[in-house]
């Protein structure tokens, strides 16, 4: 389906309050046309309808007139530069960016990720994202993480105890 026809359907979906459908169409368009900042801007507008500042910030990250709170929410959700690279869903070199601001933003994210890893990375190299996942899970345990794990274990044991008690009561 041509871009203009899909955008007309997005407009019709939004007019009919079919926001999830419009969002899905725009996500598909951004996937097909990752260099089109206009599509990213429209997707950010849809996420604002959801009240999702982090996703709005994600899709406006390459725009100079972006909202600082949305940008901060995006950076908080995607803490490492590697996760941001993956979230931005861009392909190709920085020079393919439509604006100099977008080019600088992408270069800054890629450079930060390369410095963190200690070797060059590429926007088209999914291996660098896997390194980010592995790095994320190599972090030390935290008190909150341990308490959450213990809480899950206690809850599971409590459920098993109630279930066993119920089975025993059933046969008594």
Question: How do the helices and strands line up, and which of them pair or pack?
Answer:
Elements: H1 3-15, H2 19-32, H3 37-50, H4 53-60, H5 68-77, H6 81-88, H7 100-117, H8 126-137, H9 143-171
Helix pairs in contact: 1-2, 2-3, 3-4, 4-5, 6-7, 6-8
Keywords: Membrane, Transmembrane, Transmembrane helix
Protein name: Transmembrane protein
Transmembrane segments: 145-171
| Number of β-strand runs | 0
CATH class of the largest domain: Mainly Alpha
**How is the biggest beta sheet arranged?**
none
User: Rough shape?
Assistant: extended
- Taking pLDDT < 50 over at least 5 consecutive residues as the criterion, the unreliable ranges are none
Please state the structural category: mainly alpha
H and E string: HHHHHHHHH
Figure out the total of helices: 9
Termini Cα gap: 66 Å
What is the CATH topology assignment of the largest domain?
Serine Threonine Protein Phosphatase 5, Tetratricopeptide repeat
- The total number of structural domains is 3
Protein name: Transmembrane protein
Transmembrane segments: 145-171
Pfam family, one: DUF6584
Keywords: Membrane, Transmembrane, Transmembrane helix
